[in-house]
Amino acid sequence: MGAGRQVRLLLWKNWTVRRRQRVRFFMEIMWPVMLFMGLVWLRRVNPLYRQHECHFPNKAMPSAGVLPWIQGIFCNANNPCFQYPTRGESPGLVSNYNNSILAQFYSDAQELLLSDPEFLQLGRLWREMTSMSNFMDTLRTHPEQVSGRGVKVETILKDDETLTSFLLRDIPLTESVVYHLVNAQIRPEQFAFGVPELHLKDIACSLNLLERFLIFPSRRGLYAVRNAMCILTPQRLQIIEDKFYANVDFFKVFRLLPLVLDNHSEGIDINFWVRVVSAASDKLQEFFQRRSSREFIQVMTPLFQNNLSFRQVMAAASSLVCGYTEGAFSRVTSFNWYEDNNYKAFLGISSGWAQSHYTYDNSTTPFCNDLMKELESNPVTRIVWNSVKPMLMGRILYAPDSPAVRKIIRN
Prior knowledge:
This protein is mostly helical. Among the domains are: about 5-45, no CATH class; about 335-410, no CATH class. About 60% of the residues lie in helices and about 0% in strands. The protein has a three-stranded antiparallel sheet. Strands 1-5 form a two-stranded antiparallel ribbon. This is Retinal-specific phospholipid-transporting ATPase ABCA4a. It comes from Stegastes partitus.
């Protein structure tokens, strides 16, 4: 029997069988059609997941530095996928985050401020202000600690003072009295709460009041000054006081006052600080005009507003530390199906975080509700959150629900 005859017999047999068994013939035709239509429906309902070329930021080892290491952990927590090559793929570069706002802000601060010798002197200003503050607090609360010590009159006069010549020529006083006056020490504790309301004549004629405000090198000097000043009229005494204030160098006063309490403390050199603060203000003005400073302020300003969501906090932290915003990359949830049992997240059908049903908790704050909602909606954090949630929320799941088990849980 030839091959052609065998083929004709086989076709005749198949045709005869299907003509006699029409239900079988219908099923053989419709079953593949139904499978094809089902596949077409699945494809239309669940379109293909198209993932572009992925460049993942490298994670620096601790040997690269503490900051790159922490940035690598924090900035890769969301598993970001970039379509373009990252900076860390270039030879010789370890960190991808040198262009972040915080890195640029620190770089500009180091260039303009931290490398400027005059700006670094602001630390000395803080120490001197602290020393002066401690001195003033001691005067108000424990004046006995500075009792018997004072500031020498001669040391606080101006370099070109005219008080001495005025006392010798115009009053006039003897050289011995003038010597005892300018070498006396002023007690600062008597002026801690302001200038006492006493008449100059009463002070000049009283040994006790003179010793209350001045410390003389000897008792002889005290008596000499008392005898010379007491015979003067109140008008003359007032002229001497005005002349004294006109010749006082208050820059020297601020520098010498803290030495009364501690010989090793630093007073305030106002002349020096006028120059330093002026130069520092120019540097600060230039620093805040930099782009990094404006971006830093722009990112930090919303953090001080009320009703701040957890996502806004994370977006601001990402912009500061990492240098890219939420829309600068695509998120790859997982390439391992063991890590995520949500097939939609695994297939990447939803480009964002899946919004699960969250029950609002009235017993806590809106910020905590927003935080828990974000943790439950992100497949990456949902597994960890479900593990620690009973401990944080204070609820323990148990089984079976029987009186004996409830008694154990209650105890």
